[in-house]
UniProtKB/TrEMBL annotation:
Organism: Stylosanthes scabra
UniProt keyword Ubl conjugation, yes or no: no
EC number, as in UniProt: 3.2.1.39
Enzyme class: hydrolase
Substrates-to-products reaction catalysed: Hydrolysis of (1->3)-beta-D-glucosidic linkages in (1->3)-beta-D-glucans
Recorded family membership: Belongs to the glycosyl hydrolase 17 family.
Alphabetic keyword roster: Disulfide bond, Glycosidase, Hydrolase, Signal
Domain X8: 356-441
Keyword Transferase part of the UniProt annotation: no
PANTHER family in UniProt: GLUCAN ENDO-1,3-BETA-GLUCOSIDASE BG1-RELATED-RELATED (PTHR32227)
Membrane spanning residue stretches: none
UniProt name for this protein: glucan endo-1,3-beta-D-glucosidase
Signal sequence, renumbered to the chain: 1-16
C-alpha cells in the first residue's frame, strides 16, 4: 500500500510532469470543515487543489501541507478588481501575501467562464489579470504564482476537426490581449473540458466510448483530415482545438491546463448516461491518461495537467440531478462509487487493509461523549474492562480517551460496518493507530475484533438537517481510495 501511495504522490508532483488535482466546491448542506477537507486530501495524497474563492480559514488550514493551491477571484468581485488597481492590490495583500509561503499558492484563477457566464465583465477581464499581476510583482511573487482565467470550451467554435477550430470572433478584442498577457507572463490557458456535455449535445454523433476514453478500433477513431492526426477521445480533441484556436491568432507557445473535467454519477431521467459506472470509467481513465504524460496528438510531449470536477457532491447546486453529482466523495467523506480495476478485481470503497480505527472527536461535547461511551460499554456489548483503574488503557483518565477505546472496540467487533463509527456525530474514522504504550487497541496489527451476534448499531443520527451526517466516515472511506488511485497508475489496461 505504501508503494502505491508513493507512486501516486510522485506521479502527481514531479516537476514538468502532468498532475491530477481536484476542485473543491462549497454548495453543500453539511459542508465539511477545512480541517476535515485537508485530512481527506492528505489521506488521498492529493497534492493540487483549486478553490473557488480565497477562504481565509481554508488557506490557513492548508498551510505547511505542501499542497499546491489555485485560489480564485469570484465573479462577483471581478468588476471591482478590473476597474481598480488599488482594489486588486488590496485583494492580493489579504488573500495571497498574507498566506505565502506557509500556504503553497501557485496560481490565481481570475473569475470563472467570464466570457460565457458574465459577459458584462468581459471588458475589464484583462485589466483584472494585469492589476493582480502587478500586485504580485510588487510582492515579488510573480515567478511562483501564475495568473489566468478559466474558459468554457464553448468559446471554441467548430472544435472538430481540431485543425479548423477558432475562438468565437465576438471575443477577439478580449482573447488577443488575454493571450498576449499569458504569453508575456509565462502563464497558461485555463480550459474547462466536459466530454459529458459534448456527448450529450452531439445527437448521437459522438460515441459514448469515445467520450469515456474507452479503446476504439482504428476504423472508429476520429481523424482530422487536415493533419491526419488520430483522436481516440473527446478530451484530447477539445484540448487540441484550443491549441489550434490559439495558433489561428498567432499564439503557439501557451500551454493548456484543464481546470475542470469529470463525469456525473447520477442524473435525471433525461440523463441516462450519468451513472456511477460511467463516472467511474471516465475519471479512472482520465487519471491514467493525464499521468502517463502522453499529451495530445498535436503536442504529444506537452503535459495536460487536469483538475477533476470535483471533490464532493454539491447537493445545493441548482439544475438537473447531474449538477449535484460530480463528486468523488459525499460530504461525509465516503467515496461516491467503487473503482473497478481491470485485472485486479473490485476494490471496494471501504477498508480492506484492516488498518482503520474509530476515535472520539476531541472537540465533542463531553456529555455526549459520556453518553456514547456508556452505550458502547452497555448495549453495545464492548468489553470495557481495559479502561478500569489499574488496567492498561485506564490512562489517560478522561472521557475522550476512554470513549476512543470503546468506540474503536465497537467499530472493530462490528466488522467496521456502515454506521458503526458515528455515535451521534462525536466519532470519526482515522487511519492513525490510537494505541499507546501497553494499551493496544482492537484492530491494531491487522486484526479485526470478533463480530458481535447482536444486531444493534452504534447510535447515529441519519437526519440530513442535523449536521451530524456530514461527519460519517470522513476519513474512513478515504484510505482505500488512495490505494485505488495508486493502483490506477499500475494498471495498463484502459477500462
Amino acid at each position: 500500500m505504501a508503494i502505491l501511495l508513493l507512486l501516486f504522490l510522485l506521479a502527481c508532483s514531479v516537476n514538468g510532469d502532468s498532475f491530477i488535482g481536484v476542485n473543491i466546491g462549497t454548495d453543500i448542506t453539511n459542508m465539511p470543515s477545512p480541517t476535515e477537507i485537508v485530512a481527506l486530501l492528505k489521506a488521498q495524497s492529493i497534492q493540487h487543489v483549486r478553490l473557488y474563492d480565497a477562504d481565509r480559514t481554508m488557506l490557513l488550514t492548508l498551510a505547511n501541507t505542501g499542497i499546491r493551491v489555485t485560489v480564485s477571484v469570484p465573479n462577483d468581485l471581478l468588476l471591482g478588481i478590473g476597474q481598480s488597481n488599488a482594489t486588486a492590490a488590496n485583494w492580493v495583500a489579504h488573500n495571497i501575501v498574507a498566506h505565502v509561503p506557509a500556504t503553497n499558492i501557485t496560481a490565481i484563477a481570475v473569475g470563472s467562464e467570464v466570457l460565457t457566464a458574465l459577459p458584462n465583465a468581459a471588458p475589464v477581464l484583462v485589466n483584472a489579470l494585469q492589476y493582480i499581476q502587478s500586485a504580485l510583482v510588487a510582492a515579488n511573487l510573480d515567478q511562483q504564482i501564475k495568473v489566468s482565467t478559466p474558459h468554457s470550451s464553448s468559446v471554441i467554435i467548430d472544435s472538430f476537426p481540431p485543425s479548423q477550430a477558432f475562438f468565437n470572433r465576438t471575443w477577439d478584442h478580449v482573447m488577443v490581449p488575454l493571450l498576449k498577457f499569458l504569453q508575456s507572463t509565462g502563464s497558461y490557458l485555463m480550459l474547462n473540458v466536459y466530454p459529458y456535455y459534448d456527448y450529450m449535445q452531439s445527437d448521437g454523433s459522438i460515441p459514448l466510448d469515445y467520450a469515456l476514453f474507452r479503446p476504439l478500433p482504428p476504423n472508429k477513431e476520429a481523424v482530422d483530415a487536415n493533419t491526419m492526426l488520430h483522436y481516440t477521445n473527446v478530451f484530447d480533441a477539445v484540448v487540441d482545438a484550443a491549441y489550434f484556436a490559439m495558433s489561428y491568432l498567432n499564439f503557439t507557445n501557451i500551454p493548456v491546463v484543464v481546470t475542470e473535467s469529470g463525469w456525473p454519477s447520477k442524473g435525471d431521467s433525461s440523463e441516462p448516461d450519468a451513472t456511477t459506472d460511467n463516472a467511474n470509467t471516465y475519471n479512472s481513465n482520465l487519471i491514467r491518461h493525464v499521468l502517463n504524460n502522453s499529451g495530445t496528438p498535436k503536442h504529444p510531449r506537452i503535459p495536460v495537467s487536469t483538475y477533476i470536477y470535483e471533490l464532493y457532491n454539491e447537493d445545493l447546486r441548482p439544475g438537473p440531478a447531474s449538477e449535484k453529482n460530480w463528486g468523488l466523495f459525499d460530504a461525509n467523506g465516503a467515496p461516491v462509487y467503487t473503482l473497478h480495476l481491470t485485472g485486479a478485481g473490485t476494490v471496494f470503497a471501504n477498508d480492506t487493509t484492516n488498518q482503520t480505527f474509530c476515535v472520539a472527536k476531541g472537540s465533542a461535547d463531553s456529555k455526549m461523549l459520556q453518553a456514547a461511551l456508556d452505550w458502547a460499554c452497555g448495549p453495545g456489548k464492548v468489553d470495557c474492562s481495559p479502561l478500569r483503574e489499574g488496567q492498561e488503557c485506564h490512562e489517560p483518565d478522561n472521557v475522550v480517551a476512554h470513549a476512543t477505546y470503546a468506540f474503536n472496540a465497537y467499530y472493530q467487533q462490528m466488522d467496521k460496518s456502515t454506521g458503526t463509527c458515528d455515535f451521534k456525530g462525536v466519532a470519526f474514522v482515522t487511519t492513525t493507530n490510537p494505541s499507546h504504550g501497553s494499551c493496544v487497541f482492537p484492530g491494531s496489527g491487522g486484526k479485526n475484533g470478533t463480530s458481535s451476534n447482536g444486531t444493534a448499531l452504534a447510535p447515529s443520527n441519519t437526519s440530513t438537517t442535523s449536521g451530524c451526517l456530514s461527519q460519517h466516515y470522513y476519513n474512513g472511506g478515504s484510505l482505500i481510495s488512495s490505494v485505488i488511485l495508486g493502483a490506477l497508475l499500475l494498471s495498463a489496461v484502459v477500462l
